[in-house]
Each structure stands twice: as structure tokens, then as C-alpha cells.
Recover the amino acids of this structure.
């Protein structure tokens, strides 16, 4: 079974890095569903098919391995990543940022409970914008549109997701260290 692509991981964590509004510290689950890319949809469906076809012991081992990294794949290819927000990060409105792919994220505007941001990654070259709508300090919904180039052809993808606070204790999930300035 192939692991989720670096692009998917980048997009999930780039979305996590932008939702700094007023956020409760602790363990968060960020779930995203990609769309607009038939090749990615096919790869996610194949991954789910392979996981379902595994013997129960092997499937349990694979799910445990993904879980140790705070990741799971749900129905319809929705990917959930758990992230840890430290009290210091929450106090500074700083959230985990992507350390792979040489990504930057910028907040464009904050109005009421809505935040708009944009991001750019160099590896793979990807840009996008997203809108985050907060429901207090323990939940948000997001919609993103991203552009990338794959095999020399431009692609546009969408991502819809949600984040929810799980607990004040991050357990085994370690905070992602911000990139060095």
C-alpha cells in the first residue's frame, strides 16, 4: 500500500498552520477530503481497497502504524491528522506549520469568525487559498482551492475539512516544530 503523497501531507498541515484565530491548546483532529483531482481520488480509493483487503492482523498493524503518526483514513478517502497545539503556541496564535516541502502560509484577512489565508510550497510547487470559519475556540470548517503542476500539466484541487479540539492532553502526539527563521 502506498503512503499518502507528500503533497497531501503538505496540504493537510498547511491548513493546520493557518487556522490561528483563538484556539484552545491541546490535541486537535483535522479532517480533510480532497476533490477535483481524479488521479488523487483514484489513489485514495485504491489505498482504501488495499487496506480493506488485508488480513485483519495486517490491517490492524497498518492502522496502528498510521495512528502512531496521528493519521487515519476514513470513509470516502477523508484523511484525519492529529496535531498538538501547545499552550505557548495558542497564546501566540501560532499553530503547527509544514516543515516539509518548504511551505509558507500567510493570513490575508480576519473578519469576525472567518479567516482567509494563502500558502505556497516549493516541493512540490503548490499554491492555494483557504477560508476558515470558526465555531468558538474548539472547532472550525475550511474550504481550500489549490493549484499545482503534475507531470507538466496544471491541476486544480479542492479540499473541504473541519478541525475539532479533542483534549487538553496531546498524549503521544508531539507538536510540530516551527521552521527556523
Amino acid at each position: 500500500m502506498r503512503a499518502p503523497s507528500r503533497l497531501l501531507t503538505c496540504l493537510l498541515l498547511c491548513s493546520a498552520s493557518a487556522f490561528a484565530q483563538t484556539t484552545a491548546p491541546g490535541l486537535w483532529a483535522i479532517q480533510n477530503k480532497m476533490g477535483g483531482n481524479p488521479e488523487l481520488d483514484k489513489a485514495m480509493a485504491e489505498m482504501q481497497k488495499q487496506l480493506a483487503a488485508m488480513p485483519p492482523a495486517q490491517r490492524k498493524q497498518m492502522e496502528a502504524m498510521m495512528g502512531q503518526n496521528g493519521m487515519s483514513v476514513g470513509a470516502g478517502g477523508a484523511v484525519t491528522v492529529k496535531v498538538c497545539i501547545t499552550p505557548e503556541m495558542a497564546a501566540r496564535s501560532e499553530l503547527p506549520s509544514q516543515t516539509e516541502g518548504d511551505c509558507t502560509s500567510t493570513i490575508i484577512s480576519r473578519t469576525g469568525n472567518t479567516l482567509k489565508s494563502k500558502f505556497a510550497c516549493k516541493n512540490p510547487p503548490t499554491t492555494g487559498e483557504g477560508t476558515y470559519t470558526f465555531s468558538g475556540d474548539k472547532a472550525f470548517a475550511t474550504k481550500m482551492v489549490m493549484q499545482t503542476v503534475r507531470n507538466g500539466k496544471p491541476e486544480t484541487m479542492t479540499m473541504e475539512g473541519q478541525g475539532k479540539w479533542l483534549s487538553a492532553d496531546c498524549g503521544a502526539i508531539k507538536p510540530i516544530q516551527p521552521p527556523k527563521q
Observations:
- The first strand starts at residue 26 and ends at 35.
- The chain is about 25% helix and 40% strand.
- Residues 1-13, 15-20 have pLDDT under 50 and may be disordered.
- The radius of gyration is 16 Å.
